[in-house]
UniProtKB/TrEMBL annotation:
Highest taxon, organism lineage: Bacteria
Gene3D superfamilies for the chain: 3.10.450.50
Name of the molecule in the record: UPF0225 protein GCM10010411_32280
Pfam hit, one: YchJ_M-like
Family: Belongs to the UPF0225 family.
Domain named YchJ-like middle NTF2-like: residues: 34-128
Length: 132
């Protein structure tokens, strides 16, 4: 990761530099403590195109063999709408979110989803989604 990206605000929307926020998870220096933190780190992984982290943080039963990023698509903003369970004391949880993006030619769009997360071998992983 470039030093410029490391010092930039984290794409997940929290008030911290990428290197101190989701970058720590992407580098394997920390694990997500909650389902929401994993959701934020996965959004950031899409924003910085970190396929390895996305695969690693996906449940083995539902994980795809690879990640293909759409050329020209930029993930720009994450808004957490709601969470259920998903704390350090739970084994499952959901995160409802809206993720804004821009595509080629500046076309704006939004993904509205409820993501399901579970603990697998003691670590939070993404299981599946219900797209809204």
């Amino acid at each position: 990761m470039s030093k410029r990206r490391d010092a930039a605000p984290c794409p997940c929307g929290l008030p911290a530099a990428y290197r101190e926020c989701c970058g720590r998870l992407h580098r394997g220096e920390a694990r997500a403590a909650t389902a929401e933190q994993l959701m934020r780190s996965r959004f950031s992984a899409f924003a910085v195109q970190d396929a390895a982290y996305l695969i690693e943080s996906w449940h083995p039963a539902t994980r795809p063999p690879s990640i293909d990023f759409e050329p020209g698509l930029r993930w720009e903003r994450l808004d957490i709408v709601d969470t259920t369970e998903g704390t350090p004391f739970h084994t499952k949880g959901t995160v409802e979110f809206r993720a804004s993006y821009s595509a080629k030619g500046g076309q704006a769009g939004e993904l509205h989803e409820v993501s399901r997360f579970v603990r697998h071998d003691g670590v939070w992983v993404y299981l599946k989604a219900i797209v809204r």
